[in-house]
Amino acid sequence: MGLRFFKEQCYFMFLMSEIERRLKRALPHIAIRVQNELILASPVDTGRLRNSIKVISTNEGIVIVMVDYAMFVEFGTPPHTISPKDKKALKFKKGKKNIIVKKVKHPGTRPNPFIRNTLRNKLGQIIIEELAKQ
Prior knowledge:
Blueprint: H1 2-41, H2 48-52, E1 54-57, E2 62-65, H3 70-75, E3 80-82, E4 90-94, E5 97-101, E6 104-106, H4 114-133
Antiparallel strand pairs: 1-2, 3-6, 4-5
Helix pairs in contact: 1-4
């Protein structure tokens, strides 16, 4: 164990601190690239979800922020009943016709795991590329 082990431990500690230093410098760049990838991968209806995507770097890592309904897009929803909250009925248009009903049985939505897919497929390579630049 002796001197060789001590040298290896010191070198390992040096490498870990160097990786940590580089990672902290790279985090803002990683956050920008992850944000761009999420924006490209996000589904678009009105653009509200896409426009809400922000990825912020902190001392601890990155934080992904977006509209509250993003979780329903990411994970889908089960079939459910929609009832009015403050009124007696729901009103919506179907084509040119106004529809008024007391409740609607929504079939649910399929998941669109654009966040998980982006992180799974892009994050590793982004980190490698940004660490290499430091």
